Amino acid sequence: MSSGCPPQSPAVEKTEVAVEGECPLLAATFAYWDNILGPRVHHIWAPKGDQLMYLSDGEVTFLANHTLNGEILRSAECGAVDVKFFVLAEKGVIIVSLIFDGELKGDKNTCALSVILPQTELAFYLPLHAVCVERLKHVIRKGRIWMQKVCWDSSALHSQQIKDTLLNDDDIGDSCHEGFLHKAISSHLQTCGCSIVVGSNPEKVNKIVRTLCLFLTPAERKCSRLCRANSSFKYDTGLFVQGLLKDSTGSFVLPFRQVLYSPYPTTHIDVDINTVKQMPPCHEHTFNQRRYMRSELNALWKTDSEEDIPPETVIHTDETFTPDLNIFQDVMHNDTLVKSFIEEVFMLKPGLSLRSTYLAQFLLLLHRKALTLLKYIEDETQKGKKPFRSLRNLKTDLDLKLEGDLNIIMALAEKLRAGLHSFVFGKPFYTSVQERDALMSF
């Protein structure tokens, strides 16, 4: 893994901070070491307003990653903070980085809090170095406590409400057939929590949407959407769950390109006919996405305007499609995780907090299994230094023998470690070096 090109991470969150007067700072970053994928930037802070020197987000990310290189074998006492000071003349910047251990994503990680300044401010900064380091160390001490208390804390799931969802019904037969609900939730989890729910009745559509949102984090639920009667809502790329209404003829067509460009594969649920279909897993989804993107860019390269692109030059030329006939497939794999959950949750009385608590425990179980899977892969690959070759052993050792169970836990782990599917399954789907370089040059 170290010799290859790691998959692209999701967009780094960035906050612009209003400051009074002149600010010599270019940016501050919080980064951590991922044992499979290497250095990852978690957050960027930058002063708001015009600056004499500007660094792009990509450059800031590169500089933050630079500070963690060589820290994989770091050996320090618990709570120790190491200080690193860089002068990068080729970039015209200085970096002050404090390295420490912290709880992140349910595991102990090597982290770095860094500040980046122009090299022209070196003489100004050096007399203040000791003062700045001491203040940053105290910030880190407080930050480590908050990281341990709230970061990836599954206790927040206890506050979820199951009112107006299928899980609050007296019996599974009240609203839908048990097999349909089982398949919908299972596929929803297998596609990283991304689902489209379509139908003619907005109340029925929204009940399924609310039910699926129970299996998302609070932040993911904010990136989901109910349908509205008499609305003109269309499919939006990047949402986790969205409800969509069929037209007056009872049909619904999805834009192929937008669905393919979604960050994760998607589940398609039709509440009128109780069907559940899903896109291929993450590594195949990424491959199809990149293939379509290359075709689009190559077609654009050969023309003077997007309007001049002949439709036959682009892979999958039709901009609309029917799910049954294209990239959505039947849910082929059975699971025991969701099946047991549904059977047991309806044994509890509705209208009480018991079902909410049981749901929270189920999600905590899935989260712990995903963390265990990641740790297992780290150990088997010597933290990403060699390929993963023991899928059969993993399924046996982690009790994930059924493909549906493995797909659910792999999808949760993918959201914790972007690119995991490609690392484990996807060597045949990697683009060649030449193709990748050509794509990046556009």
UniProtKB/TrEMBL annotation:
GO terms for molecular function: guanyl-nucleotide exchange factor activity. GO terms for biological process: autophagy; endocytosis. This is C9orf72-SMCR8 complex subunit. Signal peptide: none annotated. GO terms for cellular component: autophagosome; endosome.
